[in-house]
TrEMBL record:
<feature type="transmembrane region" description="Helical">
    <location>
        <begin position="167"/>
        <end position="184"/>
    </location>
</feature>
<feature type="transmembrane region" description="Helical">
    <location>
        <begin position="317"/>
        <end position="340"/>
    </location>
</feature>
<keyword id="KW-1133">Transmembrane helix</keyword>
<feature type="transmembrane region" description="Helical">
    <location>
        <begin position="66"/>
        <end position="90"/>
    </location>
</feature>
<feature type="transmembrane region" description="Helical">
    <location>
        <begin position="35"/>
        <end position="54"/>
    </location>
</feature>
<feature type="transmembrane region" description="Helical">
    <location>
        <begin position="135"/>
        <end position="155"/>
    </location>
</feature>
<dbReference type="Pfam" id="PF01699">
    <property type="entry name" value="Na_Ca_ex"/>
</dbReference>
<feature type="transmembrane region" description="Helical">
    <location>
        <begin position="257"/>
        <end position="275"/>
    </location>
</feature>
<feature type="transmembrane region" description="Helical">
    <location>
        <begin position="220"/>
        <end position="237"/>
    </location>
</feature>
<feature type="domain" description="Sodium/calcium exchanger membrane region">
    <location>
        <begin position="222"/>
        <end position="362"/>
    </location>
</feature>
<feature type="transmembrane region" description="Helical">
    <location>
        <begin position="102"/>
        <end position="123"/>
    </location>
</feature>
<feature type="domain" description="Sodium/calcium exchanger membrane region">
    <location>
        <begin position="39"/>
        <end position="188"/>
    </location>
</feature>
<dbReference type="InterPro" id="IPR004837">
    <property type="entry name" value="NaCa_Exmemb"/>
</dbReference>
<keyword id="KW-0472">Membrane</keyword>
<protein>
    <submittedName>
        <fullName>Ionic transporter y4hA</fullName>
    </submittedName>
</protein>
<keyword id="KW-0812">Transmembrane</keyword>
<feature type="transmembrane region" description="Helical">
    <location>
        <begin position="7"/>
        <end position="29"/>
    </location>
</feature>
């Protein structure tokens, strides 16, 4: 018994997140050499993998869709803290950081995570089958929130440029919170069955469906270690950002592309968790993760930035540019056509991945 407990404490899923956070304390705010940069990259990758493991333990304990919600909210809360920290220390140059980060998160989740999940599931099981009611409700909320928070600022006239007036920003923040709260209530209480995995004829049930849920103590430890891992992911991504910025500048890419790279790193735990669920023919969980993350990113970030704008220096740019609006509109149209039938082929997955590729390409070549 003692040997088993010792082995559990020495497991890589326990050691790596703790080690990554310890390293983060020593690396934060320092100029890193090549060895330290390589160490930070390795620990970052390990924290991502450990975070996925602990998220799945928690998800198995509480069941769907609560498990997906836990991971989405945990990642977004830390993402919001990172955005506010960077905006406070970045000065006027970081005025568009919230917009760029949120939009990158929306495109990565709705096209990247959705696309790779649909493609993987369709390749392995011919069709990716999911609940159209749940996916459609989530997508409708994402599109509404993105339009209210990121598109309208480019068209309002109270202030010049893509800015909200204080009253408009307050309205957008309250609307985001209300819509997000309504969605969470729908997902977890009123219509929880809309967000549960759908069985298909050729599906091989996953082992986790028959395994007993982990005990409460193990679940609590995993949730604590999930937060530890997520702090390490976001913190080490920030530590590695000077290296990323130098690489972006050396490659001749625009500075805004750094936000895309960091968003990819921050969303890595959810991406891996979604891919693993799709590989077990549980693509509804993948969609819950993807669309839930997009919702949390907008629904929690905009209110937090609205409150932080009271003491943040400089203006707050939220309005998207014309190219970004076109990509968002195309994503919304394709997303509707994908979720309405309740099943998708590898073609739909490929289309979403192509949209993500277009977003990354145009971010690098605006």
């Amino acid at each position: 018994m003692a040997t088993g407990k010792r082995a559990a404490l020495l497991s890589w899923t326990v050691v790596l997140p703790v080690l990554a956070d310890v390293a983060l304390v020593f690396l934060w705010g320092r100029d890193l050499g090549p060895v330290a940069e390589a160490l930070a990259a390795v620990l970052l990758a390990g924290a991502v993998l450990a975070g996925v493991h602990h998220a799945e333990v928690g998800a198995h304990r509480v069941g769907e869709p609560f498990g997906s919600l836990v991971l989405a909210v945990a990642v977004t809360v830390i993402e919001v803290a990172l955005i506010v920290t960077l905006m406070v220390s970045g000065g006027p140059e970081s005025a568009s950081l919230a917009r760029d980060t949120v939009f990158a998160a929306v495109m990565i989740t709705t096209n990247g995570i959705v696309g790779i999940s649909l493609l993987l599931c369709a390749v392995r099981y011919r069709l990716a089958v999911f609940n159209a009611e749940g996916a459609g409700a989530a997508l409708a909320t994402v599109v509404t929130l993105a339009t209210l928070s990121l598109v309208l600022p480019a068209f309002t006239t109270s202030r010049p440029g893509p800015h909200f007036s204080p009253a408009q920003l307050a309205f957008a923040a309250v609307a985001s919170l209300v819509l997000y709260a309504m969605f969470v209530s729908t997902q977890t209480v009123r219509h929880r069955d809309f967000f549960l995995p759908v069985a298909s004829g050729g599906a091989a049930p996953g082992e986790e469906e028959h395994a007993a849920p982990p005990p409460g103590r193990q679940t609590a430890i995993s949730l604590a270690l999930l937060l530890v891992a997520l702090v390490a992911v976001v913190g080490l991504a920030k530590v590695e950002s000077p290296v990323i910025e130098a690489g972006v500048a050396a490659a001749g890419l625009p500075p805004s592309f750094v936000g895309v790279v960091i968003a990819l790193l921050v969303l890595a735990p959810e991406t891996l968790a979604a891919v693993r669920a799709a590989g077990r023919n549980r693509v509804q969980i993948s969609l819950n993760l993807a669309l839930g993350s997009a919702l949390a990113s907008i629904g929690l970030t905009i209110p937090a930035i609205a409150m932080a704008s009271i003491w943040l220096p400089g203006p707050l740019l939220l309005g998207l540019g014309a190219t970004q609006m076109v990509l968002l509109a195309l994503t919304a149209i394709v997303g509707v056509l994908t979720v309405v039938p309740g099943r998708a082929t590898r073609l739909q997955g490929g289309i979403h991945l192509l949209l993500l590729t277009a977003f990354i390409f145009l971010a690098a070549n605006p």
